[in-house]
Each structure stands twice: as C-alpha cells, then as structure tokens.
From TrEMBL:
SUPFAM superfamilies: Acyl-CoA N-acyltransferases (Nat). Coiled coil: none annotated. CDD domains: NAT_SF. One of its GO terms (molecular function) is acyltransferase activity, transferring groups other than amino-acyl groups. InterPro entries: Acyl_CoA_acyltransferase (IPR016181), GCN5-like_dom (IPR013653), GNAT_dom (IPR000182). This is N-acetyltransferase domain-containing protein. Residues 1-167 form the N-acetyltransferase domain. Pfam families: FR47. Gene3D superfamilies: 3.40.630.30.
Length: 171
C-alpha cells in the first residue's frame, strides 16, 4: 500500500471510497434508505471543491499495488471551539482493507503532515456505534465530547476523541 497526497483528479475515486465505505461500515447504524441513496456523482463534485482548498486542507489517499484508491483521510484546522488545533474531517477505508493496520499508518502519516504545519493536537468525531472507533482509542485518543447529529432523518450520537499531544502517535 502506498499513501500520497490527493490530487483533484482523484475526486471520483475518493467519492467512491466514501460512499462504498458508508454503505458497508454503517449498515445497521445509518438508515438503509439513506445509504442506498448516497450519490458518488454528488460526492465527486464536493471533493473537487474540497481538493482545491489549498495546503492547509490535507487529503491523503491510500493506493494498492494496482494504483486503485482504497482509502483516504482528510482534515486540517479544528472546526469547533475545543482547545485543540487540528481535526480529522473524514477518514474511510474500503471494507477489504480494514483491520489490517493500514488505518493506523494513515493516521500517523496524516499527523505528520499536520505537524509540518505546526499543529500539536488533534480531534476526530466518530459515530458512537461505529466499531472503528476502537482504532482511535488504541492510539491513545481520549473521549472528550458527545453530541447528537442528524443523518438523513435520523438522530445519531457522535463522539469526539482527542490527542492533546499528537507527537505520541507519530512514532
């Protein structure tokens, strides 16, 4: 697996990973109609915009040996009033590459990119019922907050995990 910075030309593949990941990872958590109606085309349009935001917005993709994108992580400056300076906005891996250590490698590489920008701490929001949150906990993330969000017609609980000192996960 190879991790690199995303380019605008990757927008469609990132959108596909996001939609496919939601449809498999959130099955039984998020309403099945919402998952079925997710649009790769609509997400592609958004990703093209996001990928043009500039160097403070980081998007890394993970490619397999065939150069197919099978995961991505994005983020940058924190978007809330928590006392941290950076945030993971989105982080998704296709089902077939989950639970193999690739997610940990992506988080570490993402943290290194944030550190190059002078960032020292980080948060991530994750659905409370998402079993993938164990990865954040295993990397030393501490739950600092919880809130209700709306996904489609559902109210879902989301938890915030934080690292005060991001250097602890960058080894």
């Amino acid at each position: 697996m190879h991790i690199r910075h995303a380019e605008v030309k990757d927008a469609a593949k990132i959108a596909e990973v996001q939609v496919r990941s939601w449809q498999t990872s959130y099955k039984g958590i998020v309403d099945s109609n919402y998952l079925a109606e997710m649009s790769i085309d609509e997400r592609t349009f958004r990703w093209k915009e996001w990928l043009l935001q500039g160097p403070s917005y980081i998007v890394l993709v993970m490619e397999n040996d065939k150069k197919d994108i099978c995961g991505f992580i994005s983020g940058g400056c924190i978007r809330s009033d928590h006392p941290y300076d950076s945030e993971i906005y989105a982080f998704y891996l296709l089902k077939e590459v989950q639970k193999k250590g690739y997610g940990t490698k992506m988080i570490k590489r993402f943290g290194q990119q944030l550190a190059k920008q002078g960032k020292k701490s980080m948060i991530v929001w994750v659905l409370k019922d998402n079993p993938a949150k164990k990865a954040y906990i295993s990397l030393g993330g501490i739950k600092i907050d919880e809130e209700l969000i709306t996904v489609g017609n559902q109210k879902l609980s989301e938890e915030c995990y934080a690292w005060r000192d991001m250097s602890l996960i960058l080894d």
